[in-house]
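Hi support team,

I submitted a single chain yesterday and got back a structure, but I'm not sure I'm reading the token output correctly. Could someone confirm the output below corresponds to the sequence I sent? I've pasted both exactly as they appear in my results page.

Thanks,
R.
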Amino acid sequence: MTKRRGISMLALVACLAIAGCGGDPRPSAPAAGSSQPGTPAASGSASAYPMPPGWPSPEFPLPPGGTASGTHTTDTAVSFRISGVDTETAKSFYAETLPGLGYADTHNANLAIVRYEGNGLKVLVQDEQSGSARVTITKTAG
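Hi R., thanks for writing in. Yes, this is the structure output for that exact sequence:
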């Protein structure tokens, strides 16, 4: 268990190092169809992860059927695992959803990590060994 936790923390540190600085200072729109942070709005619609107070966006969308688990929060970063959906489903959801919410797809040829920037945030979506996706969101310098 200690080795796995060390690997998870190492992955978080690597994600934060990749995230860098910069971004779009515009405020984000609330997740479409979300009634309350962290709860599904309606059958088949996405839920949202509530972001810490003072962040550029009050919540971050989760794929339909997905829930946030294994969370880690600091002053400048939030990281969580998406349980309930596989990695490819999560990546597809974000590829369809985030551009409409003001995020630009900025990832390169590294297919294991998908990267978006916008609304004062950088978002990394990556594979975990468990088959789930890990989302890491960092504040950008504004």
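A quick pointer for reading it: Confidence is low (pLDDT under 50) at residues 1-44. Let us know if anything else looks off.

Best,
Support desk
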